[in-house]
């Protein structure tokens, strides 16, 4: 967050906020606070639509979450304390949003439909595989039965009698 935004939220002048920070520089290492470069500031200024003539002699300071937390120790008014609590809650909410993005119901339903479709395809593939296996087994059973019938016909075929048989005359 930039110094002038924080000053507005804390209801203090930017000059006062920066003076408090400069008096306590040991509390603000470079990963808590840093001063913007001219290029960064010019890029941001175009977004804020500020004029070159207006306002600042010095480049603004940017505060990280830890820097904002450290400011709470410097600014001890009721407004500063309440504002700092709100800012910290906002940082937590942003972190939670990043870690757990909101669920898009349509995307969730699409994913569930894809999973269900894949499951059904797998089940039918397995079912068809089982049917193919069953068909193969039935064919083997039919072939075996046919072979047994052929053997049975050979076994049940009347045999030629052995030995002498008297001719039978019809009367």
**SSE ordering:** HHEHEHHH
Count of runs of 4 or more consecutive helical residues: 6
Q: What is the helix content? A: 55-70%
Q: Summarize the main sheet.
A: 2 strands, antiparallel
Strand proportion, as a percent range, falls in under 5%
Mean pLDDT: 81
Radius of gyration: 45 Å
Please state how the strands of the largest beta sheet are arranged side by side.
Answer: 1-2
Summed up, the domain count is: 2
Strands, count: 2
| Computed structural class | mainly alpha
Low-confidence stretches: none
How far apart lie the N and C ends? 132 Å
Question: What global shape is seen?
Answer: rod-shaped
How would you characterize the overall build of this protein?
With about 170 residues, the protein is mainly α. It contains six helices and two strands; from the N terminus they run H-H-E-H-E-H-H-H. The protein folds into two domains: about 100 residues, no CATH class; about 45 residues. A two-stranded antiparallel sheet has the order 1-2.
Task: List the defining traits of the structure above.
6 helices, 4% strand, 66% helix, single chain, 2 domains, 171 residues
Secondary-structure blueprint:
Layout: H1 3-10, H2 14-23, E1 33-35, H3 38-48, E2 61-63, H4 65-74, H5 78-99, H6 105-156
Antiparallel strand pairs: 1-2
Brief summary:
By secondary structure, the protein is mainly alpha-helical. It folds into two domains: 3-99, no CATH class; 103-149.
